[in-house]
């Protein structure tokens, strides 16, 4: 019985393979019939001088049409299937694959594989053209596979975005740049092998022999080329950007960015040039983003004499409560202090219990002044803070962003703010440090 079962299994497999071979043979016969129809139609319709060219062109158009049709049907089927799971967060892998469009690359690959199979059937009457057309299809397959790998990296990134694993996204960004460069090199080598029909080892060996000479002779050119690719892909810099380079003490607008040098126009209308490859290794501040967002930071301090700091008595609190920007703040704090002092011992001593200081009230005033200013972007950080004491005094830092990044407007806004705060500090009996009398 066991031998009979084994024999039946073998027989079934043989029948399946036979059916598959018959189907493939039928497909080949079908393609050959259409190829013959095109062949004889052109022969009977076109003058003899152009018959061969038009036969090859029409057959090639037929092959391309088949590839496009199969590609369209596969994309429709696969993407429709994946789309069913797109809105379901419990399938993050499928969702990330769909977002990266790697399914389209898979459809392209399958369609081209069928095109490679159909090539012999369609062009069996033109064996001399077969080699070149086969290389063309293989070349396209190389680029499709490279695109699939690139989209595979995008799928990984999309997956981590869905999972909100931002640390892995940063790591993936660092790795993906290397993988992309290596992938471009490998794809280029394979493409050259396919086009010229030579082995990859011959290309790699030749490259190894001339690499040392190329690096010595074309060092700056190679570094500039790599930098250009980096700048183009990262989109960190472009001609017209306002940048600052602390290493060279430069600040200006990029006038030209070529393979060897980058030209920068300084604000005093002079021109500076730096090696382009320096853009990879040097700290660069791109201020164009600030300009385009129409916001610009104010980060400046006023240094106060610590000896002018004091507790405020009730009379001084009542006087300062007439200032509109801190009226509600002082009335609220005054009630809290009066209520607390009624419950503590030795309330006649100023140091006991909670108190208001002139520097603290001024800090609140400066903050409210910035919050009420129409020239300050209220969607960004607004802060008034004390910095560490220095031998000159205590710095009070103003930190905020203007809603106008134009240089002249920015300077006017900044000057107006500090003009007001410097004079307003006198109302709080504060002394601003000044070392030399003017």
TrEMBL record:
The chain crosses the membrane at residues 52-74, 105-124, 136-160, 181-203, 209-232. Keywords: Membrane, Transmembrane, Transmembrane helix. SUPFAM superfamilies: Sm-like ribonucleoproteins. One of its GO terms (biological process) is cellular response to osmotic stress. Residues 220-288 form the Mechanosensitive ion channel MscS domain. GO terms for molecular function: mechanosensitive monoatomic ion channel activity. It is found in: Membrane. GO terms for cellular component: plasma membrane. This is Miniconductance mechanosensitive channel.
């Amino acid at each position: 019985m066991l031998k009979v079962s084994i024999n039946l299994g073998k027989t079934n497999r043989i029948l399946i393979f036979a059916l598959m071979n018959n189907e493939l043979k039928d497909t080949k016969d079908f393609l050959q019939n259409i190829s013959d129809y095109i062949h004889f139609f052109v022969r009977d319709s076109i003058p003899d001088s152009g018959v061969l060219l038009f036969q090859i062109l029409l057959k090639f158009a037929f092959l391309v049409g088949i590839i496009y049709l199969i590609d369209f049907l596969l994309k429709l089927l696969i993407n429709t299937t994946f789309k069913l799971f797109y809105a379901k967060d419990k399938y993050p892998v499928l969702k990330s694959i769909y977002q990266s469009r790697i399914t389209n690359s898979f459809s392209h690959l399958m369609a081209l594989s069928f095109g490679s199979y159909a090539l012999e059937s369609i062009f069996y009457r033109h064996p001399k053209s077969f080699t070149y057309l086969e290389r063309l299809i293989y070349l396209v397959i190389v680029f499709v596979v490279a695109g699939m790998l690139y989209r595979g990296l995008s799928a990984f990134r999309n997956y981590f975005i869905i999972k909100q694993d931002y640390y892995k996204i940063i790591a993936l960004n660092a790795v993906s740049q290397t993988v992309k460069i290596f992938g471009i090199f490998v794809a280029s080598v394979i493409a050259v092998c396919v086009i010229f029909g030579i082995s990859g080892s011959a290309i790699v060996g030749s490259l190894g022999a001339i690499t040392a000479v190329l690096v010595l002779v074309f060092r700056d050119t190679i570094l500039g080329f790599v930098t250009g690719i980096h700048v183009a892909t990262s989109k960190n810099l472009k001609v017209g950007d306002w940048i600052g380079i602390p290493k060279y003490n430069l600040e200006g607008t990029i006038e030209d960015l070529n393979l060897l040098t980058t030209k920068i126009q300084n604000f005093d209308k002079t021109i500076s040039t730096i090696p382009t490859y320096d853009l990879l290794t040097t700290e660069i501040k791109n201020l164009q983003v600030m300009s385009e967002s129409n916001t610009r930071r104010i980060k400046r301090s006023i240094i106060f004499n610590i000896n002018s700091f004091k507790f405020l008595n009730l009379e001084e609190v009542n006087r300062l409560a007439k200032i509109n920007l801190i009226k509600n703040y002082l009335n609220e704090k005054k009630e809290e202090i009066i209520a607390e002092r009624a419950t503590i011992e030795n309330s006649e001593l100023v140091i006991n219990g909670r108190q208001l200081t002139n520097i603290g009230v001024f800090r609140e005033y400066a903050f409210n002044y910035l919050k009420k200013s129409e020239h300050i972007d209220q969607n960004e950080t607004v802060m008034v803070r004390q910095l560490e004491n220095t031998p000159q005094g205590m710095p009070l830092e103003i930190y905020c962003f203007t809603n106008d990044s134009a240089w002249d407007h920015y300077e006017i806004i900044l000057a107006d703010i500090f003009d007001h705060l410097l004079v307003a500090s006198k109302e709080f009996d504060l002394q601003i440090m000044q070392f030399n009398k003017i």
